[in-house]
Amino acid sequence: MTGTVETPVVELHGIEHSYRRTVALRGVALRVLPEEVVAVTGPSGCGKSTLLHVAAGIVRPQGGLVRLLGQDLDRLDETERTRLRRRRVGIVLQFGQLVPDLSVLDNVALPLLLEGHDRQAARTAAASWLERTGMDDARDATPAELSGGQSQRAAVARALVTGPAVVFADEPTGSMDTLGGELLLDLLVGAARERGASVVLVTHDNVVAARADREVRLRDGVIETESVLR
Ligand SMILES: Nc1ncnc2c1ncn2[C@@H]1O[C@H](COP(=O)(O)OP(=O)(O)OP(=O)(O)O)[C@@H](O)[C@H]1O
Ligand SMILES: [Mg+2]
User: Fold this and answer.
1) Whose CA is closest to atom 28 on ligand 1?
2) Residue ranges per domain, the chain?
3) Pocket residues for ligand 1 (CB within 6 Å)?
4) In a mutational test of the pocket of ligand 1, which residue from 15, 16, 28, 48 has the highest number of ligand atoms less than 8 Å from its CB?
5) Is 0.90 surpassed by the pTM of this model?
6) Looking at domain 10-228, what is its CATH homologous superfamily?
7) What are phi and psi of 112, to 5 degrees?
8) Per residue in 200-221, pLDDT tens?
9) pLDDT (tens digit, 9 = 90+) per residue, 32-90?
């Protein structure tokens, strides 16, 4: 070891966030290092999704500092934040969030199309990710025709298609049976580890959390415990 200090991929300091009268996060600090896989766990309503949305730059917290891939998000305008997310971040939201009017294939190709990639190349890359997630049969379906588990597979394919430096995934296997969920998780974590990307994984499932390098347990909007798993 050289003793070099690695720049964290995600850095949160003193994050406070409320929705009307519900306090969701009260002073949360978190660092995620390059190549690290961090599981965020805790009971329903403890603030896991809020934390993920804040870290990914989707929600602007009422208090605290968010640094994503070395950039202080407060110093970026909306366009710059969107660009950073599109280019270097993959996001799997808790409730799928595919574009209803597009085919599954085009949903997965969309992040590349938004980045100006050629349509054919984007579709070819999307098709290969759909194959890896076991979704090649459903490429021409619309999101309404998919089961919960299939939507999650498509959402994971869409998050990985750009080769992001960090992936945020909120219960990515929550609608899947155990075996399907494990395979999808292997793919997600494996793809990240292969390319040295970091993963922040929200889950209530201990088996899923055990795949991480580190587990951060939230309770009532504060970090209750942190444990190093490997
Ligand atoms: N858009 C919103 N409007 C109002 N309250 C919200 C909103 N989103 C979350 N909350 C509240 O903030 C708190 C934290 O919610 P959050 O979704 O972050 O929890 P969670 O840990 O992800 O829960 P779950 O495991 O059920 O997904 C909860 O009390 C929730 O009811
Ligand atoms: Mg949630």
Assistant:
1) 45
2) 10-228
3) 19, 22, 24, 44-50, 94, 204
4) 48
5) yes
6) P-loop containing nucleotide triphosphate hydrolases (3.40.50.300)
7) -75, -40
8) 999 988 888 999 999 999 999 9
9) 999 999 999 999 999 999 999 999 999 999 999 999 999 999 999 999 999 999 999 99
